Each structure stands twice: as structure tokens, then as C-alpha cells.
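Friendly challenge for the regulars: who can give me the C-alpha cells for this chain first? No prize, just bragging rights.
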Amino acid sequence: MEEERENHDIWMLKESERRFRALVTASSEVVYVMSPDWSEMRQLYGRGFLADTEKPSRTWLKEYILPDDQAHVTAVINEAIRTKSIFELQHRVRREDGSVGWTFSRAVPLMDAHGEIIEWFGAASDVSARKKAEEELEKHRQQIEELLMERTVELRQSEQDLRGFIEESPLGIRIVTAEGETLYANRSLLNMYGFDTIEELKNTPVDKCYTPESYAEHLEREAKRQQGLPMPDIYEMSIVSKDGHERHIRVHRSEVSWDGRTEFQCIYEDITERSRAEERLGVLSRRLLELQEEERRSIAMELHDEIGQSMTALKLLLDRQAGLADGETQSTLGRSSRLVGEILEQVRQFSLDLWPKMLDDLGLLSTLVWYFHRYTERTGVEVDFTHAGLNRTFGRDLNSNVYRIVQEALTNVARHASVDKVIVQAQTEKELLIMRIEDKGLGFEMEGQPLYTSTGLEGIRERARLLGGTLTIDSAPGYGTRLVLEVPLKEHIAGESR
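First reply, four minutes later:
Bragging rights claimed.
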């Protein structure tokens, strides 16, 4: 048995290594693996940006992080460890060639069945060029704003200087009236749209210049401005150029004196590449969670099919020998059989904690009903569960993530709410899955969210985001806590799961 267990452990390590290498091969990002407390970098594939880690390193902080930045990076790491949440930071690094670069790094904690961190999987993008461009763009933007503030005297001369500066700016700049009429657009802005002249910009229907979603938001902003309602001065939108390409833009809107009148200046900052980088990291984050679930499912099946069957066979053998023996030998064999039975039950429970097989076989609703019954037996907290529209087949992606979200939320209730009852409501409305989890317990201050942030809220938020859904939390001391998850079902019906 000991040899079989050792062989199984070796096989699991090799399988985990194989999956990690498959992820590395499929990714264009820097990928790394850290120990639970980050004291050791176990693997790093630098992609020519950072030096590869050939073997585990405990000096990675000195090797990759600049001395002035080490304290801040360490502080953010320690907070992620403390809260068991996703590590995310943009910081300087020492590149493979010895020069200084910038990276956007994101790492996901992998948990065991007891909620303890066993490893960190991370990915990092080289954002050095983007950082440099942002600094230059910010410098230009600040120069423009400083110039606008300083030039209030000698208005005509000031406007001439401003126009010259605006025309040379790498940022797109547009002067519009309160009604939205374009008075001026510099060359950088026209280039964003692919237009040759301002007349071409003016003559193009407004709805053709936006994506459908951004056009709807544009109409909403204009309507609120006409009503005199306050609107943010900085917002994001997606535009469509003349050749059909989409670009993501951050807009800074402010008042400006133009031709002796008060108009509005809109500075367009192209953040398309950054948005794409964030999207790629989101995809990688999704894959890391998928790998975690696959690993849990694989280990659970091994425990059930291999170890469980072996333990059952051992118990039957002990029972048989006990029936043939007598005296002290029979008593010893009986105790051994009972001990094996207890271990077998622990293995079964551990397998269920890792991955309830019925989630694949029977679906989300049946698994939730089973889990709530098991949860009440373990914690003494009753689950008042009502549902509507869940008698349908969802994709595995939705099943696993919704189950984990509910599991984590109810774990928080048992640990921190001090209640004997929790309300769970689930329903589908117009192709939208809505989950409400509510308790009347201790609650907490929403300002800092110290309780839930330290017990898995970031993991819940990440799973909701990967499903394309939204997560809202309301809580107050003495009034309990309510969590609402909304997930669009269009891409999560069986056969359509992403």
C-alpha cells in the first residue's frame, strides 16, 4: 500500500507538471509558480523578457525586483497571502538583459480542500513600452491642462498658442459645444478615426463612429447633460474607425475657452493595447481556475476509484480473516477493520470536498440540494433554499463556478455570521441566472470589507467576472449580509459553455 501511494503521488506530480507545461506552451505571457508564502520561486518561464528560473530559487526577490521596490512588492504579496486573494500589481523588474522594465503581474492562489494555499500560479505581461507611452501621454496631458490653466490672460494669443500645441499633441483632442457639435479636431484624433479632414468627421453619422454599446452610452450621457445632471469628467468608450477597426478610448472632458466662448475639450487617450493585455490576462486567469478544477476533479476520481476501492478490498479482507480467527487475533482484526472503515469514510468525504461527482452526473440543482443538506449536518446552520427555473442543463463552466461561489459564501456564513439559518434563492429570469444568499447575522462595515476580503471574496469576484456576471454585496454591522450574483445564460447553456 505504501508503495502504491508513493507511485500515485509521483504520478500526480508528473501530471501537474505536464499540465503546467501545457499552459506555458499555450501562453505568450511570462508564467511562474510560487510557494505558498512566496519565499521560493519554483518555476519561471521568462519568454525572453525575464531570465528563466532553471531550479527553485529563494533569492528571486533580489534577482528580479529593484531594491527600492522590494518593500512595496513584499507588502502587496503579504496582503494577498493574508487575505488569500489574487495578487495583482504593476511594478518594475530587472529584465533578462539587465535593463529595467515594467510588468503587470497577476497570481492566483491554489487551495486545498481545507482552504489553505498550496501554491500560486501567476502570469506577467511586459508593459514597459506601454508604461513609457503612458508616461509620455500623461506628460502631454498634464502639459495641456497646465497650459489651459495658465493662459487666461491675453485670450486670443493664448488660444493661438494652445491650438499649435494641441495640433502637435500625440493625444486626440476635440473641441465641442455643449450640444455636441465638433468645432475642432487635431490630427491625432482624426487619425484615430481614419479621417482626412474635420469635415469628414462631421459628416459621418454619429452612430457609425461608436460600437453599438458605446453609442447607447453616448446617448445616455448626452441626455443627462441636457437635463443638467452631473456626469463624470473621465469615462471610457469604444470607437469604430473608417476602416472598421475598433479602438478603446479613455476620454478626459473639461471646459475650455475657445474663440472667446466657453466650450468643452475632450482629450482622447487610446488604451486599446492595455485593454487587450487585460483581456489576455483575464483569459489566462480563467484557464488557471479551470486547471484548478480539473486537478480537483482528477484527484477526487483517483481517491474514489483507486484508493477507495483498495481500502474497501482491504476492509473486506480484514473482515474475512476476523471471521476465521479467534481470541485476541479476532479482536485485533476487528479493530483494524473498523479503523480502515473510518479512513475509507474520510477518503470519501475528502473526495466530495474536492469535487462532487454528481455535479457532472446530475447537474447544478441536485448538487446544491445535496450540498445544503451536508452543510447543515456539518455546521448546524439551516439553509432555506427556494428555486425556480433551475431544472435545465447548464454548461460545466457555470456549474463549477456557481457551485464554488455558493460553497465559499456559505463557508463565510458558518464562520462569521453567528446565525442558525441562511436564505438561498436561485432563479432564472429572461436568460439570466440570479443567486441571492442572505443572512441576518453580525454583518460588517462595507467601507473596508475586512471580513469577506480575508475569506475568499476576491475569489468569488473573480469567478463571477469570468462567467461574465456581476456580484453585489450589501452589509452593515448588526443587519446581516446579502450577496447577489447575476450571470447571463446565453453562453452557459449545455453545449455552448465557453
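Confidence is low (pLDDT under 50) at residues 450-455. The chain is about 50% helix and 25% strand. Your move, everyone else.
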